[in-house]
Specification:
This protein is an alpha+beta fold. A five-stranded antiparallel sheet has the order 4-3-2-1-5.
């Protein structure tokens, strides 16, 4: 499952920009003031960044909901999945999906034959 990287949020960047702008205004040369058009342009860019961040969060929520609905559709079906042992070897197993849940990280987990299987580990469905 793809995750959103933890980057500095647009609101934090915008707050830092406003602080910098206030300092610039305090210390500006009265004979050479800051360009209003440039400031307005930068504020508009911050607004766009904030909107994109909100849209990204919304898309992530839609993706999670779709994955949960898909996982729920697997209940009662036979799946083949891969698992990795402690020694690093990968094995392929099969079983019937008995339930769906989420682990502490929020990842979708299928209950297959008493084992917790990640949705990403499923390789085929019968």
């Amino acid at each position: 499952m793809a995750t959103v990287s933890s980057a500095t949020s647009s609101s934090t960047i915008q707050t830092d920009y406003i602080k910098l702008l206030v300092e610039q205004l305090k210390n500006q040369d009265p004979t050479n003031p800051l360009d209003n058009n440039q400031m307005a342009s930068q504020l508009a860019q911050f607004s766009e960044l904030q909107q994109l961040e909100t849209m990204n969060t919304s898309f992530s929520e839609v993706l999670k909901t779709n994955q949960l609905m898909y996982a729920s559709s697997l209940v009662g079906k036979q799946v083949t999945y891969q698992s990795t042992a402690e020694d690093g070897t990968t094995t392929t197993n099969a079983g019937m999906v008995q339930g769906v849940g989420k682990n502490s990280d929020g990842n979708i987990i299928l209950s297959v034959g008493g084992y917790a299987v990640g949705l990403d580990d499923v390789v085929s469905i019968q």
